[in-house]
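Posting this for the archive.
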Amino acid sequence: MATALITHADCLKHVTPQGHPERVARLEHVLEALQGLDLVREEAPVCTDEDLRLCHPQAYIDRIGAAEPVTGAAQIDSDTWMSPGSMRAAKRAAGGALKAVDMVLGGAVANAFVATRPPGHHAETETPMGFCLFGNAALAAKHALERHGLARVAVLDFDVHHGNGTQDLLWAEPRSLFIGSHQMPLWPGSGDATERGAHDNVLNLPLAPNSGGEAMRRAWTPALKRLREFAPELIVISAGFDAHQDDPLAQLNWGVEDFRWITGEICTIAAEVCKGRVVSVLEGGYDLAALAASARAHVDVLMEAGQ
């Protein structure tokens, strides 16, 4: 079976101010790195408000839509901006995650990588933040649970920043398991190991600055045992590549091989417990060369696992 790549040119129309780290070039570099690979290439659809209501109330959706400027740029959070086209890009990003779930659970592909922007794992139920408008990974999980009738879905997040939005959106969801590693201390300041979810369904793995890839592997090894015991029917990955040693926003100092390792470990467990069904959605990564190389390694492993 094959690996799907889901993206859309509309995601290049979400334009942030000059110098902003979450910029159009991020997606351009990722897509360039994936050129020539034997992937099932699909366009991300525009999701509906009904889709977004799996995680966000309609009043919030309306507020975000109303914040989109007709021209120029609008700041909706200390570091989150919108331009003309941002709402459509965000709906493509969420729609791409849902389409990936449909394709993987429908057996069309073994797994999928959703290369879209804006990212999503910082968007809380009614709060945009951290470059994020809607919770793409959490929406994928809720879509699988509510519409495909799955009993258990895991969301794994290795972005260098804590996935506070995903944690918030899945906090009270007993059918989910959220596991995330992240640098601490670091923005947004959440993600302590004592934050465990309403049903003991959250496992945070805070990592010290400059701790490196070996510390990451030591933290993830028991967490992956917890994942195996949970036996999800689908695994959703929030694939942020800003833990790389060249990234300007953090100091975890991972190398490309660390992203290859964690992806391989996840895919191995997926093969054991859920027929290899993995949906990965792009989150952070702000050094363009490091982002491209890490995303390429991530997708290479997905393709190897899907064969």
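The two ends are 5 Å apart (CA to CA). The first strand starts at residue 3 and ends at 7.
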